[in-house]
Fold this protein.
Amino acid sequence: MKKLTSLIIGFILIVGISIGYSGLTSASIRFEHIAINVENPKQVADWYVKYMDLKIISASKKMIFVSDPGHHCMFELYKKPGVKVSYSSLSHAASHIAFATDDAERLAKKMVEGGAKILKKFKNPVGDLVINMRDPWGNNLQVIQRVKPKL
């Protein structure tokens, strides 16, 4: 076990050093996508397009990429046969995907019309409106209207 641990640590160090010398800077690294294994990628993508104004970037038989309108990040929606994930069993405190908007109430209302559920609505200590939700497939979502945007 010690040999395996040493080997893994060595590999991480070598990769880390290689990346450090590859010319990558913090400015050249950004989020690209979040992959979500779903039963029906087309159905989920259509919901995010219709109720959250996301855009389909590319689609194939195996996966669909949807992006926010500003193309800042994408979801890769795919179905992996034999792998079943119960997103609805995950606590919102354990994991959620947040969407910033300038009108959280309007977006949440539209999402509810499409079958999403509001779990909790509150203002955080700095005054941001936070709405914790689940999409129709149980994914934890958060709609947030920040007083002072972070990005």
